[in-house]
Specification:
The chain has a 9-stranded mixed beta sheet, with helices on both faces. The chain has a 6-stranded parallel beta sheet with strand order 3-2-1-4-6-8, sandwiched between helices. Strands 18-25-23-20 form a 4-stranded antiparallel beta sheet, with no helix packed on it. It contains 11 helices and 25 strands. Helix 1 packs across helix 5. The longest helix has 17 residues. With 430 residues, it is an alpha/beta fold. The protein folds into 3 domains: 152 residues, NAD(P)-binding Rossmann-like Domain (Rossmann fold), CATH 3.40.50.720; 173 residues, Rossmann fold, CATH 3.40.50; 66 residues, Beta Barrel (OB fold (Dihydrolipoamide Acetyltransferase, E2P)).
Length: 430
């Protein structure tokens, strides 16, 4: 990512940022800085795009008639100083702008690849304050991922590194919601699954990639992978590899920055705190501080998504969450042992008492009016009492194909846990 040529590596480590210009990368950089509590200011020419709704992370916004005046105003206001990196996100940085930026006393200037700049006449001392960062060389990288690369380098220095890797055990709907958020925030992500995963909400679960080869949820794509090269190809393409590995053997080989147990078995099936610098588990069955570093609450209610750093999540209530007044009534369990035959798949509108699947020769009826939101895969062998389907009484088919509110809350808890437990992951600080 970086190309500092014969200038050498600057020892400067940013304690604040000042973004010059707007755009998607500037927006992503300001939001990531806000999340990490890294002070971030910004400026644009009058009529620019640094609006509070698009750039909520900027502590101050400066608008002037020229970019030179923006920089001088930033220095005068105290936003630019020795500990500041000025990030210039403009198509061109002419001699006047560059010299003004150097005169401000900013500890470092960052010019994004693609910015035309003439360094003729710049002293060797000032050259050491300039970093040229190429943000265009990663296929499939989102603005958020480029911002992560950029911020990691600016706060810690060094050459381009792969984004931190998070391995998620399980690829059901809650795991998928978590992986989508992590991927969008710039992490590399991989999922480990068992053969013939018994997920119910197949239409929003990356486990489906094991059956179909590739599967997308809300614009993020997962692909089945069977080797390290296939995993790396997926990451280069901005995708999430899903690997058959119920025992977690790939964890030791890939050495991820974090492991997330999203199996949701209500018990620990082998996840250990020594698997990665940060190990997180979803729901009951784990003790934070003993089995894992953090547990995320999965029970619907006021604490959903809460980070637990000592102790356990709320115990399994065996009662599904309330949706439109229905709890246990909306969930369908296998009445007998047998192989599943689907009669009404996900997205089908059904009436109470209508057959929706069969287990062996036994038809299973819809418990209420609504839309089939979850259905176990065709041909799955099940035992009596096993969860095999759910019907959403709200009857909105779109809910079958988007990440749930519960999954989003849990995903936020996972993301926050990773950055709280290992802030140096992005900032280079202990």
């Amino acid at each position: 990512m970086s190309n500092q040529s014969d200038r050498g590596k600057s020892p400067h480590r940013s304690s604040s940022l000042f973004i010059l210009g707007g755009g998607e990368l500037a927006m992503a950089l300001s939001r990531l800085s806000e999340f990490l509590r890294l002070p971030c200011g910004g400026g644009d020419m009058e009529g620019g795009s640094l609006s509070p709704d698009r750039f909520p992370g900027l502590r101050d916004r400066i608008c002037e008639a020229s970019y030179e005046k923006v920089l001088l105003a930033g220095e005068k206001s105290g936003q630019i100083g020795e500990g500041t990196t000025v990030v210039i996100l403009l198509p061109r940085c002419d001699e006047s702008l560059l010299r003004t930026a150097l005169r401000t006393g900013a500890g470092r200037l960052c010019l994004i690849g693609g910015t035309a700049v003439d360094l003729t006449g710049v002293s060797r001392e000032d050259l050491r304050r300039i970093a040229l960062v190429d943000s265009r060389d990663g296929k499939g990288e989102s603005p958020e991922q480029k911002a992560l690369f950029l911020l990691a380098e600016l706060t810690g220095g060094g050459e381009r590194r792969d984004p931190p890797l998070v391995i998620v055990r399980g690829a059901g709907d809650l795991a998928t919601g978590t992986m989508c958020k992590l991927r969008r925030c710039g992490f590399r992500v991989a999922a480990l699954e068992q053969p013939h995963p018994r997920v119910i909400r197949r239409s929003i679960s990356f486990a489906q990639a094991l059956f179909d080869g590739t599967f997308s949820v809300e614009g993020t794509t997962a692909v089945r992978a069977e080797s390290e090269e296939e995993m790396r190809q997926a990451w280069r393409s901005g995708q999430i590899p899903v690997i058959l590995d119920p025992e977690g053997d790939w964890i030791g080989k890939l050495k991820p920055a974090a492991v997330v147990d999203a199996i949701l078995a209500k018990k620990n099936l082998g996840t250990r705190m020594d698997m990665a610098p940060v190990v997180i588990a979803l729901g009951p069955g784990f003790t934070a501080g003993r089995d894992v570093h953090a547990v995320i609450e999965t029970n619907r209610g006021h604490n959903l998504g809460k980070i637990i750093l000592a102790g356990e999540a709320e115990p399994n209530t065996h009662v599904p969450g309330n949706i439109a007044g229905y709890t246990s009534e909306r969930v369908v369990h296998a009445p007998v042992r047998g192989r599943v035959s689907i009669l009404r798949d996900i997205g089908s509108m059904v009436r109470k008492g209508e057959p929706i699947l069969a287990v062996g020769d036994r038809e299973v009826l819809s418990p209420l009016d609504g839309v089939v939101r979850g259905m176990i895969a065709q041909g799955t062998e099940v035992t009596p009492g096993f969860k095999i389907a759910d019907v959403d009484p709200r009857g909105d088919i779109t809910y079958c194909h988007i990440i749930s509110d519960k999954a989003r809350a849990i995903a936020g808890g996972v993301l926050e846990s990773i950055l709280v437990l290992n802030p140096g992951l992005l900032t280079g600080k202990p």
